[in-house]
Amino acid sequence: MVKYKKKNHFIYVLFIGLMFFGFGKIKAQEISNSNSVVAKNLKWSERMALSILKRDPQAWQVDNNEKPKWDYKLGLLMTSFEKLYQKTNNPIYAQYIKEYGESVVNSSGEILNYKLEDYNIDSVNAGKMLFDLYSRTKDNRYLIAMQTLRKQLETHPRTNSGGFWHKKIYPYQMWLDGLYMGTPFYARYTVEFEKGKDLDDVAKQFEQIHLHTLDKKTGLLFHAWDESKQMQWANKETGTSPNFWSRSIGWYMMALVDVLDYMPKDHPKRKELIGFLNEISVAVAKYQDPSGLWYQVTDSGAKEGNYLEASGSEMFVYAFAKGANKGYLPKKYKDLAIKGFDGITKKLITVDPDGEVHITQVCASAGLGGTPYRDGSYEYYIKEKIKVDNSHGLGPFILAALELEK
After folding, report:
1. Which H or E element spans position 358?
2. pTM
């Protein structure tokens, strides 16, 4: 096996050479130790992926985790690596996913640090990587893990109107985030294993969130809805949270374009979902900054403390680009996506002398309720931690780049 160790050799040259000489056993750790640079003439999708491999040879190490864990953010990252592998056929990306899969699903199919009875919709998201892992490896552990997550959805508590609670500890609440966490897995599973029998129920999740969180004035969706209207953050008349958070709307839009991959063209709900995508796209486009980016609090512009946020911007770019590529959205949204991605690369990406790429201005996390209490106020959203290379900003960057490279 040939290995290029020389300082300043392009990491991509290393990969190509290894592919010719038998890449099947190469480990991400060997890539990290090569001291090679990331070639600046590569596509942005691979520049980011190779930078991640360089920093974190094992996927569970992203976000400075000290040990493996089943995690929705890492599931998002693995989804982006899967799409990159499908495009490039470079086995290093498949290997990265496989090593993560083996670290969080044991040989009996048990998922690390997962408890079905917690009924946390976030826990379903990483299950999306299992479909292709199972297809490639034929390892039954991944089928068992998928079946476990499907069982969660069968008994997951719901609002009286049929929407999945975000978590058991957040009763009667639907969050926009939860649409991405649950519905793409649900849609693919029911299509591949159940002949699509529950696609109506998948669509119901979007119908409920659209019905209850839509702000008719702006066309945007509020971050969450409390059917019980008991939470301090909930509007006593509508049950909605008080503000628009770009990443939450981004989760919703990504969920729409991804679920549509599994919604047959003749399915009666398909047209409705495409309509939802067009509605929210019109609204989101109105708030795109001249830089091409979007603000943390979507409708508040350059109000004091607000900032141009990476992950939400990337998610909007991905949804616009994929929507236009698939014919769900008018072609003008591809132009808006290009403008957005240019803004990301010019204003939010930094590049080290050796070519390593970083994404800045990523909101680390945001939610509602809990301890300490998160009230959903404008001040709350702008004061959450802002990080560099947070996983929320890594996966969507790769996904957005891939759509624009088509």
Report:
1. strand 357-359
2. 0.93
Is 63 tagged catalytic? no
- Catalytic one among 63, 177, 226, 258? 177
Helices (H) and strands (E) in the chain, counts: 15, 6
pLDDT band, very low/low/confident/very high, at 39 (cuts 50, 70, 90): confident
pLDDT averaged over every residue in the chain: 93
Residue 324: phi and psi, rounded to 5, are -70, -40
Instruction: Please determine, for residue 29, whether its predicted confidence score (pLDDT) is greater than 90.
Output: no
SS3 (DSSP) at 291: coil
Composition of the chain by helix, strand, coil, percent to 5:
55, 10, 35
Q: Long-range contact list for 87-92, CB < 8 A, 24+ apart?
A: 87/45, 87/402, 87/405, 88/46, 90/15, 90/19, 90/23, 91/19, 91/23, 91/24, 91/26, 92/15, 92/23, 92/26, 92/28, 92/31, 92/53
d(CA 139, CA 262): 24
Q: How many CB atoms lie within 10 A of CB 1?
A: 10
- Return d(Cα 349, Cα 359) in angstroms, integer: 5
Q: What is the pLDDT of residue 12?
A: 43
